[in-house]
Amino acid sequence: MTHNTAVKPFLEVLSGRRQSVPPLWMMRQAGRYLPEYREVRAKAGGFLDLCFNPDFAAEVTLQPIRRFNFDAAIIFSDILVIPYALGRSVRFEVGEGPRLDPLDTPDKVGTLAAKADFTKLEPVFEALRRVRRDLDPRIALIGFCGAPWTVATYMVAGHGTPDQAPARMMAYRHPEAFAKIVDTIVENSITYLLGQLSAGADVLQIFDTWAGVLPPREFQRWSVGPTKRIVDGVRAKVPGARIIGFPRGAGALLPGYVEATGVDAVSIDWAAEPSLIRATVQNRVAVQGNLDPLVLIAGGEALDRAIDDVLANYAQGRLIFNLGHGIQPETPIAHVEQMVKRVRAYEGN
Ligand code: CP3
Question: How far is the CA of 78 from the centre of ligand 1 (A)?
Answer without folding.
Answer: 6
